[in-house]
Specification:
single chain, 10 strands, two-stranded antiparallel sheet, about 230 residues, 6-stranded mixed β-sheet, alpha/beta, about 35% helix
Amino acid sequence: MKLAIMQPYLFPYIGYFQLVNTVNKFIFYDDVNFIKNGWINRNRILIQGKAHYITIQLKNASSFKPICEIEFNDNTKQIIKSIYYNYKRAPFFHEVFKIIEGALIAKTNKISELAINSIKSVCEYLKIETQFEISSIYYHESINLTKENRIIKICKKNNADTYINPIGGIELYNKDDFKKQGIELKFLKTKDIIYKQFDNEFVPNLSIIDVMMFNSKDEIKKMLNEYELL
């Protein structure tokens, strides 16, 4: 059993979906504290050849509150409009825009649920069949443990023999600590992924929205394997 655990992000970059695609079960970490200026309620798209943020406006957001308790103001119509006008000439606009629009008009006022919906919608489009769970529902009893110990406890509860984390966590977790518990810790590093964006100079690491607008499902499936495990 390969397991990954991550905060839910709004239409995250392709590396997030590489992580989802490479594990058997993916857990949305929604009962940890909200991260200001992170990716939970925003991401970047291409506007006039440059990276620009699309941001869901939040109500009383605080780094002392768990993600699952954060509500948002509904400015999704403006974001949908921005995506429409900036990608309407993209080669896969017609099939992708419906998915993006559907994900953003979900009937919820919680940013965690909106972000999770955005990720699941993309996975359904790409036929990624990883099993999903939500930490606040299935693993809340372990919330008082330290960061590493909680991850290990969740892994053991799932009989996971491999835990995969994005490369950014290489300073946070110790492979030996996991090994002592019978778990192999690996870090996923995304390779450079380049594709044609209109006739502009390529802008990397944008939202998966950008990837989907300019690439077919088969092309994206290949990109999902463009990584190395360290």
